[in-house]
Amino acid sequence: MDKDRDSTVCVRSERGVLHLTLNRPEARNAMNAPMLAEIEHAIDTVRDDRAVRAIVLRGAGGHFCAGGDLKSMMTAGGGDAAANGADPIAAVNRAFGTMLRKVAQAPQLVIAICEGAVLGGGFGLACVSDIAFTHVDAKFGMPETTRGLPPAQIAPFVVERIGLTQARRLCLTGASFRGEQALRLGLVHECFSGEDELQAMLAATLAQLMQCAPLATAVTKQILLEVGRRDMDAVLDDAAQKFAASVRGSEAPEGIAAFLQKRAPRWAGASGLP
User: Fold this and answer.
1) Residue 213's CB: how many other CB atoms inside 10 A?
2) What's the pTM value of the predicted model, to 2 decimals?
3) Per-residue pLDDT tens digits for 98-123
4) How far apart are CA 117 and CA 138, in angstroms?
5) Of 106, 110, 132, 248, which has the fewest CB atoms closer than 10 Å, so is most exposed?
6) Which runs of consecutive H residues, i.e. helices, occur in 32-178?
């Protein structure tokens, strides 16, 4: 799967990995409506494709994402609420939340590579990844309040990622910080200082992922994302049903047989390396 270089998101599929590159480098990859739609379309396209094991998010031109395109947001639909109560600015803002939830709920492992500006909506995108790597000099922050705006669609995902106490401090002050502090906060998982180091991290992570069964990975992610959203007994009841379905499925017998026979399972045949 490949897309034209003129798209706001460049899409490349290689050996079980879907690479999504935010492609507005002239705007530090600030997100506009077309970019949101292209990200969602790419996620929808592979949602049920178990041959795609991971989605890697990166930005073109040395920046991950500088947030939302403020100019396009401020002029959305002429700026006035419609007579029927529909507010075009609210609709544009809500679209950010829809995109973030779609990325968060993708069955595949989602990896964010944070470089340069990781601000506003880009900060939110990092928060919905399963694994995030950051350059030590990447700049993180939610500057919305310094622009007279709330980080409306981003804040809930920040709370989920780093907890309410830290989210309150960062959201309410608009403070910025670098990659190593992002690591200490638990926002990201590893730091890198150069491309070779990043590629080694990425290769090791993808190689480990390829040892895991695709459907079991997707089901595990579903269980994890239910925690805190539903009553715990309901989560555990549903997880038990998912476990039983897995036992009766095709992956568990193969995985257990491979373990007993001291061989790699069938799904580990693809390296998945970039």
Assistant:
1) 21
2) 0.92
3) 999 999 999 999 999 999 999 999 99
4) 6
5) 248
6) 33-46, 70-74, 88-104, 121-127, 155-162, 164-173
